[in-house]
Amino acid sequence: MAERMVGKQAPRFEMDAVLGNKEFGKVSLEENMKNDKWTVLFFYPMDFTFVCPTEITALSDRHDEFEDLDAEVIGVSTDTIHTHLAWINTDRKDNGLGDLKYSLAADTNHVVSREYGVLIEEEGVALRGLFIINPEGELQYAVVNHNNIGRDVDETLRVLQALQTGGLCPANWKPGQATL
């Protein structure tokens, strides 16, 4: 049986990544926590596919809104940093990503995908998992869906803002509305 993760300390990670400036570097939950940042960690199956670029670029296009909410966005697949960079260097009109404003991390050993419960072991790829972690390292939100369905950036931002209120947010709550 799966173990509950929400409300507990998130699994710590440090991964190689292609940073927003197209340089190779590292991303880590500890670094985000040290900088008092929220972490929006999302997993996707693989580079050079069809649904993935739609959500990866949509998140990048709205990156300023995440920054305004003191949140670091990190995308993760089991592909290498070299494949990530090749995809970033491919123009959007050619099913590439073009310039990204956040990091794409490489979970080539599958450890992080496994710890977050999104690894499809027999395929070696991740499901579409999205996790929001507060600056104290507590996993506040988790959603995992089938790989055929992309995620909604508006909903991710809404949930992040709801979590940041520290209050009770009713169904269909929108930023600016009262909490309970």
TrEMBL record:
Q: Which InterPro entries match?
A: AhpC/TSA (IPR000866), Peroxiredoxin (IPR050217), Peroxiredoxin_AhpC-typ (IPR024706), Thioredoxin-like_sf (IPR036249), Thioredoxin_domain (IPR013766)
Show the active-site residues. 52 (cysteine sulfenic acid (-soh) intermediate)
Is-annotated flag, keyword Disulfide bond?
Answer: yes
Keywords (A to Z) from UniProt: Antioxidant, Disulfide bond, Oxidoreductase, Peroxidase, Redox-active center
Q: Which residues form the Thioredoxin domain?
A: 4-165
- Matching SUPFAM superfamilies: Thioredoxin-like (SSF52833)
Q: In terms of domain of life, where is this protein from?
A: Bacteria
Q: Name one GO biological process term.
A: cellular response to stress
**CDD domains from the xrefs?**
PRX_Typ2cys
Q: Name one GO cellular component term.
A: cytosol
Q: Which Gene3D superfamilies match?
A: Glutaredoxin (3.40.30.10)
For whether the record's keyword set contains Disulfide bond, the answer is yes
The record's family statement is: Belongs to the peroxiredoxin family. AhpC/Prx1 subfamily.
Q: What is this protein called?
A: Peroxiredoxin
Taxonomy of the source species: Bacteria, Bacillati, Bacillota, Bacilli, Bacillales
